[in-house]
Amino acid sequence: MALPSPLTPEMAEAIAERFRVLGEPTRLRLLDLLAGGERTVGDLASEIGCTTANISKHLALMADAGIVTRRRSGLHSYYAVSDTAVYELCGQVCGSLRAIADARAASLRETA
Amino acid sequence: MALPSPLTPEMAEAIAERFRVLGEPTRLRLLDLLAGGERTVGDLASEIGCTTANISKHLALMADAGIVTRRRSGLHSYYAVSDTAVYELCGQVCGSLRAIADARAASLRETA
DNA sequence: GAACTAGATAGCCAGATAGCTAAATAGTTG
DNA sequence: CAACTATTTAGCTATCTGGCTATCTAGTTC
Question: What's the pTM?
Fold first, then answer.
């Protein structure tokens, strides 16, 4: 569990890369839609409201990153989340955002 | 703590933005260097090995995001981490990366 | 096999951004 | 106030990437 200290550039890049995958709203929405179980590309695309080409690319990227898996069946590709830790990450980020928003609201009240 | 489901585009963007801040290796290295306490811009720049202008920009970005704070004193700006949750995020990401690497190694052994 | 459908891929474009150098700002010291 | 120092900001460039359209591939159905 111990990270090298100081963090090596290589390690920093590896961690950053994963954060970059999550740093895109469409991908987060896809992960949210996949929280209920596997879905097809077309299904996800119509729910999000953009082209299947685009969704397919996002899903391929997340599959490369090991976040989702693909199961082919007939004409369809079913994608599912394989690394459920991403939901914990999102939850923690939400917690941070809320805390920061609260702190800023409080400091505004002080200043006023 | 509950996220809206389906995740609204606005919420997705807010979460993604925070991940994007963390999705840059130089910023992660800065956060790592700041783990031991506050440091000056020049200090951080020389440790990382790039221009102070660049480091200053990264720190300003993280300050805007509420991740670090700045304390000015004389000619120096001292930056410190204010949202220590980022360290937990990094730890979790490392855990995921390790798990994925292990799983891939295992599937390679199967295939071989 | 021809027509159809779902998905993947290629190629393009517009916007974002990390890095640099140079210049501006702010604080210190003679 | 002049010289110096730390940091910030401005402006530039190269790269990356998310979106699109068009095309290709693979699987199904008649």
Answer: 0.94
